[in-house]
Amino acid sequence: MSTIDFSWVDHATCSERTELPWLRDSAEISPWEAETMRALCDDCPVSDECLAAVDALTVCGGWWAGRDRDRDAQGATLDAWHPLLVGGSERQATLFDLDAIAGAA
């Protein structure tokens, strides 16, 4: 049996965004959260390593490698979602949970 290398985890974008519901049940995730997690995964420097580990472990829950791994999930989406840009470029974008911001107002 081979061992899976998890040294890449410390470099994953999600490791710095612990406020997001990466392991929550898909029914409890808002469309804003889902799209924010997808966008973060798109720019993650270790997304290939993440996908390889998830496939090797046959993970069937949580958000990994840019998508909900729950095979029965409908998938939360938001048609007109766009990240708020900070710093002038999409690469430097900071993503906000707009539902939380609207609720705080």
At a glance:
Residues 13-74 form the 4Fe-4S Wbl-type domain. The protein has helices spanning 31-42, 47-57, 98-104; strands at residues 63-64, 67-68. With 105 residues, it is mainly alpha-helical.
**Mean pLDDT across all residues, rounded?**
74
Structural class: mainly alpha
Q: How are strands sequenced across the largest beta sheet?
A: 1-2
Which residue ranges are poorly predicted, with pLDDT under 50 across at least 5 consecutive positions? 76-98
**Contiguous helical run count:** 3
What gross morphology would you assign?
globular
N- to C-terminal separation? 54 Å
Tell me the strand percentage band.
under 5%
Binned, the helix content reads 25-40%
- The value of Rg in angstroms is 15 Å
Question: What tags apply to this protein structure?
Answer:
3 helices, globular, 4FE4S_WBL, mainly alpha, 4Fe-4S Wbl-type domain-containing protein, 105 residues
Report on the architecture of this protein.
The protein is mainly α and 105 residues long. The protein has one domain (7-72, 80-104). The protein has 3 helices and 2 strands; from the N terminus they run H-H-E-E-H. Strands 1-2 form a two-stranded antiparallel ribbon. Strand 1 (63-64) and strand 2 (67-68) form a beta hairpin. The longest helix has 12 residues, at 31-42. It is globular, with a radius of gyration of 15 Å.
